[in-house]
Write a structure and sequence with these properties.
alpha/beta; Rossmann fold; 8-stranded mixed sheet; two-stranded parallel sheet; 10 helices; 19% strand; globular
Amino acid sequence: MVRIAMIVAAVALLLLTTLWGFQRQLIYLPETAAVASAATVGGKDVVLQASDGLQLGGWLVPARGSDRGIAVLVANGNGGNREGRAPLAHALAAEGLTVLLFDYRGYGGNEGSPSEEGLARDVRAAQRYLVEEIGVPAERIVYFGESLGAAVVTELATEIAPGGLVLRSPFVDLASVGQAHYPFLPVRLLLRDEFPLTKQLANVRAPVTVIYGSADSVVPPDQSRDVAQSAATLKDLVEIPGADHNDPVLVHGAQVVAAVVRLADQL
């Protein structure tokens, strides 16, 4: 019996060690190929400079029609690249909003490997580009974070206040969403990247909109509602009935676009 227990313990230790070493490959799911030209969405290709020297590709999509004088900085979730967010940019631009799409390190042909610290550097490069290169005042920028990106922009907002913050499918923290999918693992003990969204959101004073799908199979809807409750300045809570995490209606649908516009109109 003792020998069997030792074997089981050894196997468990091996499994946990493997998960520790390869956890970022499970968290970050980049589309690594270079993306098409921004001309496909009527924008221009831009290069962002992260504080550690990495260069990041992005698309600047100008407002069409009546320009509201507001820019939306879009922080992606953990998968794909900026091409998948083109419909969102197109829809927001049609509402008179300038949109910056960009890819994190390791995504969309960019060098480097993603991590919590790295993504924090990357989103700062995007914010800095809008302020210093385009001349958009910080208070006229809306941070839009999708899933993991919601945690990325919330952390940014604790240091550099935006005009407003839109969190689409946000989670309480990375461990909480991981525990929901892997209840048999000590996720909180294993994770190196924490993304403590609700803890950080409590310190954000910019107006906040939370959007989530009632049928989200990736981020439990209860977690998104908990995020909304943690916001000191919640302005809007939008539930999209029957929407799963990657359904078009939740990614770039009319209710999502309308929620961003409502927040922008308050700035």
